[in-house]
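User: Hello! I'm new to structural biology and keep hearing that structure can be predicted from sequence alone. Could you demonstrate with Chitin synthase export chaperone? Please show me the input and the output so I can see what each looks like.

Assistant: Of course. The first part below is the input, the amino acid sequence of Chitin synthase export chaperone. The second part is the output, the predicted structure written as tokens.
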Amino acid sequence: MSYITPAPATLSFGSFDYFCNQIGLSLCPLVGNGREPSCYSRNIQIGGVLIFEPATLVVHVVALVMTSIMISHIKFKYTAVGRKEIVMFFYMYAATIVVEFITISGIIPLASSVYPYAAAVHTSMILATFWTLFMNAFVPFQFIEDGTALSLWVVDISLAAVFFVLAQLLAFQFSSNLCETVKHYLDGMFFSVILNLLAVMMVYKFWDTITKEDLEFAVGCKMNTWEIKDPLLSDSAMASMTHREDAGYGSRY
């Protein structure tokens, strides 16, 4: 009995066959004909457990580390506009990375009764993360000019859009070609996760450019934050007054 190779899937509305033929999404085993990618990266076996997409999983770990660093930097800006909202976006992104790590790695077998729920959570987290980013546009991504250089905003947002579009193209259009070129060591998902991380980092960079330095943080870093200069005095006179004040404080002790 001869084996008949299935015809390549074509892009059609409401069908996931084309996308699942390019990249192994978590929901692919559950929709349509359960089509598998035409080319995917090599697997490794650790402790008797078969791990899928090992290179992509390493990038996921790097993404979690970078996200935690960005969250810690955001929390230093105590009075920044939309601080809690943008932190929520990064928390959602980190949670999506964790769920994606579990679903694509094979930790939960495809035959397991838990897998459909994990895939549903993963898809829901992706949608929720996009909506969180959309809602952030009305809070920290200000539409009214507040003195920040507009050119920096345009560059950051443009780079984020470029990285995101490239991620989708590599994942859903060129994944099979890349996989065959590098002999199954990598596939489109690997590059897609990297570019998605770069897009998220550009979102952080954009938010960072539209928020001013906080007073609480600035006082600890700048010694002369509270220095007040009299505009009627010259620099030499101000320096002389400061020297006399320092000498007077020192003589008390």
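User: So the tokens describe the shape?

Assistant: Right, they're a compact way of writing down the 3D structure. Reading them back into a model, for example: DSSP finds nine helices and two strands in the chain.
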